[in-house]
TrEMBL record:
InterPro entries: Carb_Metab_HTH_regulators, DeoR-like_C, DeoR_HTH, NagB/RpiA_transferase-like, Tscrpt_reg_HTH_DeoR_CS, WH-like_DNA-bd_sf, WH_DNA-bd_sf. Residues 5-60 form the HTH deoR-type domain. It comes from the Bacteria. It holds the Pfam family HTH_DeoR. Keywords: DNA-binding, Transcription, Transcription regulation. It comes from Psychrobacillus soli. GO terms for molecular function: DNA binding; DNA-binding transcription factor activity. The keyword DNA-binding applies. This is DeoR/GlpR transcriptional regulator. PANTHER family: AGA OPERON TRANSCRIPTIONAL REPRESSOR-RELATED, HTH-TYPE TRANSCRIPTIONAL REGULATOR SRLR-RELATED.
Amino acid sequence: MSLSYEERKKTILELLEENGKVVVRKVEKLLNVSGETVRRDLERLEKEGFLKKVYGGAVKNRVTFELPFDQKTMLNAKEKSAICKKAAELVEDSDVIFIGHGTTVLELVRFLNNKKNVTIITPSLPVLLLANEHFEGKIIFLGGEFERDQKFTSGPLEEMALRHLKANKAFFSAGGISIEDGISDYDLSGARSSRTMMERSNEVIVLADSAKFNLTTLANIGKLSEVSIIITDKNCSDQMKMKLLEQNVELIVSDEME
């Protein structure tokens, strides 16, 4: 019986995670499939952002650029929504929460309707607009220099405001999550914003679809040891789950959404 793409993908990503690279010939033998099938899988995984193809195989991806916000909203949309639904379960009545920038955390707002006396603090314009439509609690919008492509405020004014605030929980996404390099973002301003939220909250909760694992982007946010919880989708590999456990990071896997 032939393996499905998802089954092959799981094995390929586990090999990549363990060795930092995969070789087409080795994958052929391991999965008992043709080289053409492996190369097609690698091409698809590259498009999904999991790896970078090289001669004879593929290596871990290292990303230094970010798509504009509007282009990212449709990427892994079901996974992001499921992640946010699970994240909302961690929000308690009367909580003060930071919600960072990015498309992954945006949907969290939609799942907070049943919470009482919650305060949202955010630098994200899309979060502000969505909260204005779907959220009945208090909203604090952080001022600063507006990043047009990613639609959030940053800089000294935003950081100064954050330094004068304190939250029970910080929810933010990341450009990449790596065992070696920790949590990272695509630009310095975004990383600094998330970093300040980490320092001004009691719990740090990172929302990231599984495509973000084994990626290191331009700017470091913090170490994995500084993260309380990571919430991701069901495609997170067993290898990554074990490594996060070794780092004492609680991992929550979201339910699949139709």
